[in-house]
Amino acid sequence: MERIGIDDIHARVLAIAKEFDKICTRHHIPYYMLGGTMLGAIRHKGFIPWDDDMDFGVPIAYYDQLEDILKEELPEKYRCSTYKNHPSVIHNYFKIEDRETVIDDRTRFSLPLAEQLGVNIDVFPLCRCRLNDPVMKKVHFYKNLLGAFMNSRSRPNSLSRKFVKAFLRFIAGGSPVKLNKKMDLLLHHTNQGECLGNLLGHWGLKEIIPCDWYGCGVRYRFEDTSFVGVKSYDKYLTKLYGNYMQLPSEEKRLPHEENVFLR
User: Fold this and answer.
1) Which portions of the chain are predicted below pLDDT 50?
2) Are 121 and 96 in contact (CB under 8 A)?
3) DSSP structure class, residue 73
């Protein structure tokens, strides 16, 4: 397999995002850039140079509809991958992946290289909730439990793995998929409150923010195109990053994925 570099990864991820934007626009489905993608749009007018993915959020009222539409309308070279149809997706959000590529992630997933995910964008559900919503806190805990279970696979005889497996067995009969289904119910349970929360991303509870920060969305330049982002971006990015215009130290400028190949 031929390894590809960051410029090729950026081009492929951007192409996926353009297709996502086109489908959302055609079907009047709201979405927002999140996290490092929103930061990249403001600070770099595109990708953070060392970043290699994109994150978007869709209000959960539209989320299942969008998933169904994507499965019908995405070009053949892309795939909407979820925990229901791909063993490398462990959380309750979907990824739109480029099927012409593959990420070597065998340190985390015991799958043959050919069955690993390709480069992708993440699409998270945004849930209407209160600032200290107990249901959202439970979702956040379950999400971390699934992450701990995945990370413990590389330490089959460790105490931490035994603890995680015991907890998972207590909550969901030992099945990560059953826990995913419990989380789906919880994510759809709350539809009231002054906030929208992305509980499944890197920032967890920190990314529960007032609905009016999102607003109706504003288009921001991103590379040679534009995507919809958070209206009050300064408040949002300050909450997540502090002084978000300051670049991190060079040792922290690391890509998420280093081993990406053409299939």
Assistant:
1) none
2) yes
3) H
What is the SS3 assignment for 154?
A: coil
- Buried b / exposed e over 213-229, threshold 16 CB at 10 Å, is bbeeeeebebbeeebbb
Q: Give the separation between CA 230 and CA 258, rounded to whole angstroms.
A: 29
Inter-residue long-range contacts of 160-167, CB under 8 Å, 24+ positions, other chains counted: none
**Buried (b) or exposed (e) across 188-197, using 16+ Cβ within 10 A?**
eebeebebbb
CA distance linking residue 215 with residue 126, whole number of Å: 13
Determine the Cα–Cα distance for residues 123 and 251; give it in Å rounded to an integer. Answer: 28
Strand, helix or coil for residue 103: strand
Q: Are 158 and 152 in contact (CB under 8 A)?
A: yes
Which position has the token pair 């289904």?
181
User: Which residue in the block uniquely carries the two structure tokens 């007018």?
Assistant: 45
Residues 34 and 198: beta-carbon distance below 8 Å: yes
Query: Per the confidence metrics, is the pTM higher than 0.70?
Result: yes
Q: What is the pLDDT of residue 8?
A: 95
**Could you state, in order of their start, the residue ranges of all structural domains in the chain?**
2-249
Rg (CA), the chain: 18
Return d(Cα 99, Cα 226) in angstroms, integer.
24
Task: Count Cα neighbours of 161 within 13 Å in the Cβ-side half-sphere.
Answer: 9
pLDDT confidence of residue 24: 98
> Which residue type occupies 192?
Q
pLDDT, residue 113, reads 83
